[in-house]
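It would be a great kindness if you could assist me with a short task in structural biology. Thank you for your consideration; the sequence and its tokens are set out here.
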Amino acid sequence: MQPKTHATNVRKRAWRTSLTLALGGSVIIIVAAWHTPRVATVRQMAACSVKAPGEHTSDVPDGAPWREARILRSMPPPGYSAGAAWLTAATTTPCLPLRAHAQIDIAALRVVGVQRDGTERIVFEADFARDGNAHLDAGLYTRYPTWFATDRHTPLAVSTVAGAWTLDLARYPYSVIHAWTPRFAVTQGVRYVVEARVRVSGAARLQFGLDFWRDFRVAHNGFDEFCRGTNNCEAHVGPWIGDTHGAFMTVRSVSDQIAR
């Protein structure tokens, strides 16, 4: 899954202003409040009111459209010559305590091509300690009323601190973070696996996936599970990754399940 377009949108600034006129005087008091990422809408607050904060124990975030690993195809279909890996990150629930911890650190992200004889070759690599932002694109997407309800999103900077790209999800409990790699060349008959070195902590959750594209330039024109007439074609979606208990781990998205 990837966004329909990679166009950037100017972030909307939501202001709430109230005017109070003092009785018997002419003093007007103006109060303005900035709509921060943690400010909830009425719909979001209503959803949170029915559950206690922090009670979520599953590795699957509330509302996630892909709750478990699934493989549609491990090799590019005929007519598809490019691929792109992606990641999605969210808190387990938007109903987090104010001081909740939810952080993801990504040290490296790569795509590995696996030949029929088991030979492996790295076809894309983002080493954040070496390459900085590694040319990834990322954005904040809607979580309500449904995940990715529209393609409108707020661009999110990909920056490196201490050799890793750090995502502080506690700042964005009402949003979903989605990021994607540049497209890379793929070959018929080769399986492709997403591999990453990550540390996940607290209420943060992380998922990787991969799409095939017809070429390097073609735009998104819809989704069809069987890739009938669409420019991109979903390959596979990995399982959700939960707390790694303070350690960096190397994970491979659905590598043990991909059919040869």
